[in-house]
Amino acid sequence: MSKLQRKPQNAKIAEGVTLVQDINEANSGLEYVGFKMIDLTQGAIYEESLSGLECCAVALAGKISVTAGAKTFENIGTRASVFEQIPTDSVYIGTGESFTIKGETGISRVALCYAKSDKPLDVALIKAEDNSIEDRGKYQNKRHVHNILPDDSNLAESLLVVEVYTEGGNFSSYPPHKHDVDNLPNESFLEESYYHEINPGQGFLFQRVYTDDRSLDETMAVENRDVVLVPKGYHPVGVPDGYTSYYLNVMAGPTKIWKFHNDPDHEWILERE
């Protein structure tokens, strides 16, 4: 198993609360990015207090109610499965806040996306209709994108969050690109995590993470609900025929801007007619 790939741990941490993934500075080597995946049964409650971190709670599947600070957002979430391919609701929670999340349906999946932060910002509901939607690529390089917290959002200090769908037979995060050098305006330094779901659930996909000098070069067979860490390097995803890939990206770094550099060996594919 690659040191960059994390299998679901599925640890019961409270009544009706399952911790599927827990990526933090202590166990990942990432300085700026953290991630948790929580499954909640109906009526179950997850609680957390933030210190030195900001968080975006994404109602991945099912409905939830979120209380943070003095604000409560009830029954948010728009889909029973990510593979409905419609945007969903999220809540931004600034550092210093405490929050609770309550499951409102049979099983609710909640992604908790974290970045380092020392700037308290207002709690905010990010409605599904606030997501910008775009399609990228052509030929076998097509993907469908929901931007939850893009780099031009003023809701967060450092945090970037995006959902990406890739159909079978296509590549994504392709041509291979990286954002691991603080060299603005040409490239920004952003760590990244990928939370993967696959439909049907028995499927797999491939993700490679590599640097120019190949001091890091890992190729992984990724299964449903795995997480892949990208501390640096290029990080393309390939999806086998017959399966649909969903992934949720969390990015953060010293500057909240997404400026990437394509692998020059493969950039030529963008010039095809």
Automatic annotation (TrEMBL):
Coiled coil: none annotated. It is an enzyme of class 5 (isomerase). Pfam families: KduI. InterPro entries: Deoxy-glucuronate_isom_IolB (IPR024203), IolB_Bacilli (IPR023770), KduI/IolB_isomerase (IPR021120), RmlC-like_jellyroll (IPR014710), RmlC_Cupin_sf (IPR011051). Pathway: Polyol metabolism; myo-inositol degradation into acetyl-CoA; acetyl-CoA from myo-inositol: step 4/7. GO terms for molecular function: 5-deoxy-D-glucuronate isomerase activity; glucuronate isomerase activity. Its EC number is 5.3.1.30. It catalyses: 5-deoxy-D-glucuronate = 5-dehydro-2-deoxy-D-gluconate. GO terms for biological process: inositol catabolic process. Keywords: Isomerase. It comes from the Bacteria. NCBIfam families: myo_inos_iolB (TIGR04378). Belongs to the isomerase IolB family. Involved in the isomerization of 5-deoxy-glucuronate (5DG) to 5-dehydro-2-deoxy-D-gluconate (DKG or 2-deoxy-5-keto-D-gluconate). This is 5-deoxy-glucuronate isomerase. It comes from Listeria kieliensis. The gene is iolB.
